Amino acid sequence: MAETNRRQIIFVCKKIIDLFPRSSFEKDPFRVLIATILSQRTKDENTDKASKKLFESFPDVYSLSMAKPSQIYDLIKASGMYRQKAERIIKVSQIIVEKFNGKIPANLHDLLSLPGVGRKTANIVLYHCFCQPALAVDTHVHRISNRLGFVKTKTPEQTEEGLKKIIPEKFWGPINGAMVEFGKKVCLPRKPKCQECPVNKYCEYFNSIKFSENGKN
Predict the structure, then answer these.
(1) What's a BP term from Gene Ontology annotated to this protein (predicted)?
(2) What pLDDT score was predicted for residue 57?
(3) Segments making up each domain of the chain, as ranges
(4) What is the pTM of this model?
(5) Most buried in the list 112, 168, 186, 211, measured by CB within 10 Å?
(6) Residue 26's pLDDT is what?
């Protein structure tokens, strides 16, 4: 990759981080881990509702590890797939108590060993709770990075690998939250608001649309 192009990518990342900062994030590793599992395939507002109700009744890993799935169905129903998620988060809690003495592991290998915990969830925990350089790639980061032309990848895992090669470590953590906000407000999954986008002149997708429209004239 040409150095000029890399500098442009870093500039765009910084601009997105500055313009779309993520609001304050929970710092408790246990709550972040469970909330992120609940967030799978649902909207943030549903995750927030489910997490709030769950933690009001089961505030720590020990109480949740002793719960029965049926006890938390209604609490987490808003998050969707509540039966599967109930079994998963209770199993995760039990493993943390039995294998890790009630402490959320602070390394990628052990986090990935937990059922239902993928790289995105693990990286969110590592960055927000343990201040480690970690790049969480969800659907927003994957979509936006490809639209902008940062990478040309087919999976979030490939996107994570590609972004790590071109983005400085100091941006790894912040870019996730910023792109989530950017993706919800401007770079929407369908019908992105390209004309309103503050980085559209650097966007491969936007420039391809302009070229296509000009060609029709």
Answers:
(1) base-excision repair, AP site formation
(2) 97
(3) 3-21+136-216, 29-130
(4) 0.90
(5) 186
(6) 81
Enumerate residues 6+ apart whose C-beta is below 8 A from 63: none
pLDDT given at position 217: 46
Distance CA 111, CA 114 (A): 6
Mean pLDDT of the chain: 93
Looking at residue 74, its pLDDT comes to 97
Model pLDDT for residues 103-134, shown as the tens digit of each residue: 999 999 999 999 999 999 999 999 999 999 99
Question: Does the annotation list 13 as a binding residue?
Answer: no
Flag whether 197 is marked binding.
yes
The one-letter amino acid code at 8 reads Q
Which residue bears the tokens 């032309």?
149
Q: Is CATH 3.40.50.300 correct for 29-130?
A: no
**Backbone dihedral angles phi then psi of residue 20, each to the nearest 5 degrees:** -130, 60
pLDDT of residue 158: 97
Q: Which of 41-50, 99-108, 162-171, 207-216 has the lowest mean pLDDT?
A: 207-216
Q: At what angle do helices 119-130 and 29-38 cross, to 10 degrees?
A: 150
Residues ≥6 apart with Cβ < 8 Å to 138 = 120, 156, 176, 180
Give the whole-angstrom CA distance, residue 214 versus residue 128: 45
* 13/178 Cα distance (integer angstroms): 9
Is residue 22 within 8 A of residue 184, CB to CB? The reply is no
Whole-number Cα distances in Å, 132 to 37, 108, 114, 136, 174: 20, 10, 19, 12, 12
Which of the residues are catalytic?
120, 138
What is the second-level CATH architecture of the domain 3-21+136-216? Answer: Orthogonal Bundle (1.10)
